[in-house]
Amino acid sequence: MTAQPGPAGRDPGLQPERTRLAWRRTTLSATVAAVLAVKTALHGGASVSGVVLCALCCGLWLGFLRVAHDRIRTLSAGTPPPALAPRHATTAVLCAVAMAVCAAVLAV
Amino acid sequence: MSEFVRNIRLWFAPERVRDEGATPDYRFSLANERTFLAWLRTALALIGGGFAVDQFLPDLRWGARVGLALALLAAGVLCSLRAVNHWVRCERAIRRGEDLPASRFPALLSLVVAVVAVAMVVVVLVGWEG
């Protein structure tokens, strides 16, 4: 199975586009989680710990956005795109994990 | 266990994945990446669910609310860590031309989600009575 670029160097299966949209969807999920995090953190008045956790969650969301944006730019740069670097995958996952830890701290 | 530690080292080291085997058709790598992203979305949804339980079920007793929220959050953490691990293992298998790794995780996750859903129904019914 070999890649056959289309007339304009485009993948006929639109694989980079599909992957790009998958990153967009994932960014959307991260945004929903971050909005819920902010709502939880600032629920019942703004305490110091609440504000700190809120800022932390926003930072994590920005970190995730950064990874997704870099990857989306790489994917739209040209065919064939390079494979995802494990460091970026790990960063995205660690953002999610850290957000879960924030949620656990807020819940208890 | 040493296999697991080696996988964790691969999470952070892009060059080492590329050391092995041949570079596959980029479409296989992209498909693997999309699967990873789908698992990451599942993990984010579980984490969002944890936040939502904490926020939108204020009438529950403290123990039930925190227990449910922590169960969902733990499932989210497990799911995301497993996502990156599975992605690395698949990427390596593709490069080496081996079979893709088999996994019991989807069955495990669906069981956990089912148990949490049933617990949710019970807790909401009991919580509203008492």
Give a quick rundown of the structure:
Chain A has helices spanning 15-41, 48-77, 86-107. By secondary structure, chain A is mainly α.
Task: Kindly describe this structure.
The complex is a heterodimer of chains A (108) and B (130). With 108 residues, chain A is an all-alpha fold. Chain A has one domain (15-107). Chain A has helices at residues 15-41, 48-77, 86-107. In chain A, helix 1 packs parallel to helix 3 (86-107) and helix 2 runs antiparallel to helix 3 (86-107). Chain B is mainly α and 130 residues long. Chain B has helices at residues 2-12, 14-19, 26-56, 62-96, 105-129. Chain B has one domain (2-129). Chain B is 83% helix and 0% strand. Chains A and B meet through helix 1 and helix 3 of A and helix 1, helix 3 and helix 4 of B. Chain B: It is found in: Cell membrane. Chain B: Residues 27-93 form the DUF202 domain. Chain B: One of its GO terms (cellular component) is plasma membrane.
List the helices and strands and how they pair.
The complex is a heterodimer of chains A (108) and B (130).
Chain A: H1 15-41, H2 48-77, H3 86-107
Helix pairs in contact in A: 1-2, 1-3, 2-3
Chain B: H1 2-12, H2 14-19, H3 26-56, H4 62-96, H5 105-129
Helix pairs in contact in B: 1-4, 3-4, 4-5
Question: Which descriptors apply to this entry?
Answer:
heterodimer, A: 108 residues, B: 130 residues, mainly alpha, 5 helices, 0% strand, transmembrane helix (chain A), DUF202 (chain A)
What is the helix/strand order of chain A? Answer: HHH
- The level of helicity of chain B is over 70%
Q: Could you give the count of β-strands of chain A? A: 0
Shape descriptor of chain B: elongated
SSE arrangement of chain B, N to C: HHHHH
Tell me the domain tally of chain B.
1
Alpha plus pi helix count of chain B: 5
Quick check: average pLDDT of chain A? 86
Oligomeric state as shown: heterodimer
Distance from first to last alpha carbon of chain B:
47 Å
Indicate the low-confidence ranges of chain A by residue numbers: none
Cα radius of gyration of chain A in angstroms: 18 Å
Bulk shape of chain A: elongated
| Main β sheet profile of chain B | none
Distance between the termini of chain A: 52 Å
The percent range for helix content of chain A is over 70%
- The tally of structural domains of chain A comes to 1
Extract low-pLDDT stretches of chain B. none
Structural category of chain B is mainly alpha
